[in-house]
């Protein structure tokens, strides 16, 4: 089911310079972060740079890299963006395989093309802006549409069509000839074809080695030559090659395999100069290909590259990493680096006690970020690796997961960022981490089910909690710090006595026979009991677990339910069945007063993912926010209960004012 959203108007946005308030979902008051970058594109006049992200497309003023517009936020998850040469259109495609054509002046969606393309497809306009083409799947399917109307013009296929939709990490290039009459594309994964748009006749066909992956095309201004980069995928070492073919004569005019990166992007300037971007894991080298002259080199953060693009005239090049855009200009010796607030997946959220600072853990080397909630800007950041982090109750220390394999825990001083100690007991990735409310202990759990209790005073191991046999998904402390509750992918949830390290009980997770314990849609509840009567009982995995602020309730999120247990008897107190489209409520948190529970789900074929507020006493859903375009990883209440923060796979945090709903 699609849920209609309400957004701020473009007129209001043009007046508001606070980008944290642009195009927010209804009910949200701010957005921290600008989404994960997927693609970039220059405008023809080189005045604008479009950045496709998980929340929409940001249009930046290229000279200053200040954002001017934000579009395609209703769905988000934009994977590709392209400017038309005449400057009239912007084309986007998203993870759902939908292409939209937007008017640049009004930001109005002029055409919507719903067909099968994957998130790695490339979009390109014809030089006269009449057509738009999209590369397709692994079999080389390429389609052309009328850019103004969205009407389909022609399809070029190569090889047998797939039996079902596939998701591929391979991106196949597509490129119009300068006269706009022909299209170069990849067919059969390894062949290069140039075909006439109207007659469909081949003007060029090149069979490549099955081990050669074609990367990017570029036509010369005269249209006679086609340059492309390819990579030999049969060896572990980098083996990229540039080839230039004469289309008319079908002869190889130039080949060069001296490049050392893992990706080559060629581009012609209007005077026929062929420039090549030779891209490594941590640096980029720009070349004059015909003159074999190195033009420039610059480094970027290893492992975080997102998108690369030459301008229309080949005079500028941009490389986008997680939070930076590097710009190069052919006639300027200086490179410009712009620091932006594009990030990676948000893994954890935690408010400081004054409610003015929000601590978030991100995937990748962005690490731990301290956000000023009042100013809505980053205050400080620690570069870590895996994004799992937890703040000590005294707020003087933060524990983070680091290491090449994520098997190490570092304890950092919050004020100085200096290392206090390193915990190296784990041999597998640390999947759960939390301080006790008293601040005396830290518990860490890993992918093999190992659980360790650490003394904060000495940083010595105090206990090993033995019992789980698979990945620890969540750890929660009783408010007085005497007990720990843990959830695992071994289909169990256990309560432990902290002092002895002994398990007290395994919480029941089977279907309850008492129908009165269930809250939610009666049809869904009947379906559960019908399955039970037929002997169908599927073991569930608990992905999150926590105590209530008073310690009288334990709650956990399973695939299709939220379960509440009595923390004294350990019996099931209530089972909440969320509505269809709101499955996997894996992000859970109690309000500070303990009367309400907030849940965030994963994506389930809706435009936005829901956040729901539940009244504990009745199990009633008292409010729903349609929030992020994809999975919610964590949610947190401010200490006074007035704010709710949600962190998503989309790389952003949304702030919600919930005071009017649940009180203070």
Helicity range = under 10%
Shape label: elongated
Q: Architecture of the domain at 10-339 in CATH?
A: 7 Propeller
List segments where confidence is low: pLDDT < 50 over at least 5 consecutive residues.
Answer: 1-15, 159-168
> Main sheet, how many strands, which sense, barrel?
5 strands, mixed
Oligomer: single chain
Number of E-state strands: 57
Cα(first) to Cα(last) distance is: 33 Å
**Rg over CA atoms:** 27 Å
CATH superfamily of the domain at 10-339: YVTN repeat-like/Quinoprotein amine dehydrogenase
Residue share in β-strands: over 45%
Description:
The chain is mainly beta and 664 residues long. The chain has a domain at 10-339: YVTN repeat-like/Quinoprotein amine dehydrogenase (Methylamine Dehydrogenase, Chain H). Helix content is 3%, strand content 47%. The strands form 14 sheets. A 5-stranded mixed sheet has the order 46-50-49-48-47, with helices on one face. It has a 4-stranded antiparallel sheet with strand order 1-57-56-55, with no helix packed on it. A 4-stranded antiparallel sheet has the order 2-3-4-5. β53 (610-615) and β54 form a beta hairpin. The radius of gyration is 27 Å and the shape is elongated. The chain starts with 9 loop residues before the first helix and ends with a helix. The model is unreliable at 1-15 and 159-168 (pLDDT under 50).
Briefly, what is this?
The protein has three helices and 57 strands. The protein is mostly beta strands and 664 residues long.
């Amino acid at each position: 089911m699609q849920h209609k959203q309400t957004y701020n108007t473009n007129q209001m946005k043009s007046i508001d310079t606070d980008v944290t308030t642009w195009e927010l979902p209804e009910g949200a008051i701010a957005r921290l972060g600008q989404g994960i970058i997927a693609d970039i594109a220059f405008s023809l006049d080189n005045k604008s740079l479009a950045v496709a992200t998980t929340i929409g497309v940001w249009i930046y003023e290229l000279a200053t890299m200040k954002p001017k517009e934000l579009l395609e936020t209703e769905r988000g998850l934009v994977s590709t963006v392209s400017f038309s040469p005449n400057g009239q259109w912007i084309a986007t495609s998203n993870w759902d395989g939908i292409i939209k054509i937007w008017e640049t002046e009004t930001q109005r969606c002029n055409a919507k093309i719903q067909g099968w393309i994957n998130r790695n497809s490339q979009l390109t306009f014809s030089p006269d802006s009449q057509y738009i083409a999209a590369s397709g799947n692994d079999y080389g399917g390429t389609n052309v549409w009328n850019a103004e109307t969205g009407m389909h013009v022609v399809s070029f296929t190569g090889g047998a069509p797939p039996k079902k939709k596939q998701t591929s990490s391979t991106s196949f290039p597509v490129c119009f000839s300068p006269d706009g009459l022909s299209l170069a594309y990849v067919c059969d994964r390894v062949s290069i074809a140039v075909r006439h748009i109207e007659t469909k006749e081949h003007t060029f066909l090149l069979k490549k080695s099955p081990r050669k992956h074609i990367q990017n095309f570029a036509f010369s201004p005269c249209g006679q030559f086609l340059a492309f980069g390819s990579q030999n995928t049969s060896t572990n070492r980098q083996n990229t090659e540039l080839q230039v073919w004469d289309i008319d004569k079908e002869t190889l005019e130039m080949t060069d395999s001296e490049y050392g990166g893992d990706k080559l992007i060629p581009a012609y300037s209007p005077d026929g100069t062929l420039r090549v971007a030779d891209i490594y894991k941590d640096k980029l080298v720009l070349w004059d290909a015909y003159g074999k002259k190195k033009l420039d080199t610059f480094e970027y953060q290893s492992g975080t590259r997102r998108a690369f693009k030459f301008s229309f005239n080949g005079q500028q090049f941009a490389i986008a990493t997680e939070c930076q855009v590097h710009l190069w200009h052919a006639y300027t010796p200086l490179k410009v680096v712009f620091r932006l607030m594009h990030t990676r997946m948000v893994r954890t959220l935690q408010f400081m006690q004054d409610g003015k600072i929000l601590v978030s853990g991100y995937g990748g080397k962005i690490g731990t970020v301290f956000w000023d909630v009042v100013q809505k800007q980053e205050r400080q950041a620690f570069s870590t690796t895996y994004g799992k982090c937890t703040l000590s109750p005294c707020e003087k220390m933060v524990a983070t997961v680091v290491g090449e394999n994520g098997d190490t825990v570092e304890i950092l001083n919050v004020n100085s960022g200096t290392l206090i100690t390193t915990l190296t007991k784990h041999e597998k990735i640390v999947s759960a981490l939390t301080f006790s409310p008293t601040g005396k202990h830290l518990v860490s759990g890993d992918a093999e089910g190992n659980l360790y209790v650490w003394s904060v005073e000495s940083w010595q191991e105090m206990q090993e909690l033995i019992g789980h046999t698979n990945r620890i998904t969540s750890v929660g402390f009783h408010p007085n710090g005497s007990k720990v509750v843990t959830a695992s992918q071994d289909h169990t949830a256990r309560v432990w006595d902290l002092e002895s390290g002994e398990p007290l009980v395994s919480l029941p997770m089977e279907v309850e026979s008492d129908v009165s314990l269930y809250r939610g849609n009666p049809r869904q509840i009947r379906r559960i009991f019908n399955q039970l009567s037929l002997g169908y009982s599927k073991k569930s995995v608990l992905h999150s677990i926590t105590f209530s602020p008073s310690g009288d309730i334990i709650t956990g999120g399973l695939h299709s339910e939220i379960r509440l247990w009595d923390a004294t008897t350990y019996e099931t107190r209530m089972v909440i069945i969320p509505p269809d489209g709101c499955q996997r409520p894996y992000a859970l948190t109690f309000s500070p007063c303990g009367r309400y529970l907030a849940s965030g789900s994963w994506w389930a074929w809706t435009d936005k993912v829901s956040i729901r507020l539940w009244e504990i006493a009745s199990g009633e859903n008292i409010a729903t926010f349609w929030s992020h375009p994809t999975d919610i990883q964590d949610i947190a209440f401010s200490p006074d209960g007035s704010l709710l923060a949600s962190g998503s796979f989309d790389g952003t945090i949304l702030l919600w004012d919930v005071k009017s709903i649940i009180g203070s």
